[in-house]
Amino acid sequence: MTKIAVIIGSSGLTGSQLLKTLLSSNVYHKVISFVRRSSKISHPKLVQYVVDFDNPQSYENLIEGNDMFCCLGTTIKKAGTEEAFEKVDLHYPIQFAKAAANKGIKQFSIISTLGANPKSGNFYLRTKGKCEDELRKLPFQSISIFRPSLLLGNRKEFRLGEKLAEYAMRILSVFLVGSLRKYRSISIKKVAYAMFQIAQQNTVGYHVYESDEISDMSAQREN
Ligand SMILES: NC(=O)c1ccc[n+]([C@@H]2O[C@H](COP(=O)([O-])OP(=O)(O)OC[C@H]3O[C@@H](n4cnc5c(N)ncnc54)[C@H](OP(=O)(O)O)[C@@H]3O)[C@@H](O)[C@H]2O)c1
To answer: Which residue of 34, 202, 207, 217 has the fewest C-beta atoms within 10 A of its own C-beta?
Structure first.
């Protein structure tokens, strides 16, 4: 156990799954989580810092380690405005990433989304694409961008749009083959597993993992 992991968004659906994976792995001896409010989770390896996400000075000096994972995110509905959404899905990840690069973190992994594109006419996809572009400029040894399709997991909060998409996807899934496979919904366990797995491969450079590739990574584990 030689490495230290840093995670933001560990209280979320995918982030909490990834946090479990990091804590139970024999690769990391310490897992540092930055949160905006304290959680009840306690674990001998876990160091949790409650910080002000609007103020990078509140966390910059607390960052240390090898691999950083970002599972932050919100929805425009939940955030209230496009500006507030942009803060969570673009500015916070970039501010943390800059601080992490300055502190010598080597690998940065983030959940983006299927279809992320800085030139998209869709605000959500454009914001995610801008985030990817900004990250690309930072001096990490490796940057891993995960672009899942609709996430499947037991979310406490009810999101009507996602529930409807989930039902539609169940019906459509059989038709999503070949190059369309990346549109199939994907479980958060697969995304968390892929993020963990890629961070152990010490890749170099900028890599984008589409939803079907993410899914294949855990299929390989099952075989
Ligand atoms: N849902 C989907 O189907 C889907 C599909 C493709 C990609 N994605 C992307 O996947 C990522 C993870 O999604 P998820 O559904 O697992 O996330 P989630 O459950 O909504 O969790 C989001 C995380 O971000 C944190 N967060 C939100 N607003 C914040 C704020 N203002 N300040 C500080 N922290 C804040 C939350 O902290 P609190 O617990 O404190 O709120 C939580 O830890 C997101 O980037 C999302 O865009 C989602």
So the answer is: 202
